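User: Reviewer 2 asked us to show a designed sequence for the structure in our supplementary figure. I'm pasting the structure tokens here. Could you produce the per-position amino acids so we can include them in the response letter?
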């Protein structure tokens, strides 16, 4: 809080705290979605993208309304903006990776579901690594 400015309106402070909580939820959702079924994970990542965008919007609007009202910036606004936009960036990156590697991810998920031994799981991992490596070489060759 800058000295000399009155405290923010309680509604703006609540908006800023909501931004911070939603930004943290966006990050938590991303961390919990890793390593699961790709079909379910896509939905979770898309939801974290929306939650992160909402956090950023709430943080920005709470700060700008406080500035227009001549009050101090509400606590949590900057944190909500930062966490929200980190969540948006990471979610967008994850969705792009899903778009590029969707066949390989679904094949890995199906293979791992049927792998009952450690050696079968390792074979699934090796097959996945090989197919992703092939995809990277195709992407490099077309660029």
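Assistant: Here is a per-position design you can include in the supplement:
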């Amino acid at each position: 809080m800058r000295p000399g400015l009155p405290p923010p309106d309680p509604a703006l402070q609540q908006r800023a705290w909501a931004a911070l909580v939603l930004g943290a939820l966006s990050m938590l959702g991303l961390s919990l979605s890793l390593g699961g079924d790709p079909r379910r994970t896509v939905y979770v990542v898309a939801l974290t993208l929306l939650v992160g965008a909402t956090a950023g919007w709430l943080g920005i609007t709470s700060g700008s309304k406080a500035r227009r009202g001549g009050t101090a910036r509400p606590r949590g606004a900057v944190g909500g903006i930062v966490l929200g936009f980190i969540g948006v960036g990471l979610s967008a990156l994850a969705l792009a990776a899903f778009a590029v590697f969707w066949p390989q991810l679904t094949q890995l998920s199906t293979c791992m579901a049927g792998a009952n031994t450690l050696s079968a799981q390792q074979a699934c991992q090796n097959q996945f690594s090989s197919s992703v490596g092939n995809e990277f070489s195709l992407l490099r060759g077309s660029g």
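For the response letter, you might also mention the following. The chain has one domain: 10-142. The radius of gyration is 21 Å.
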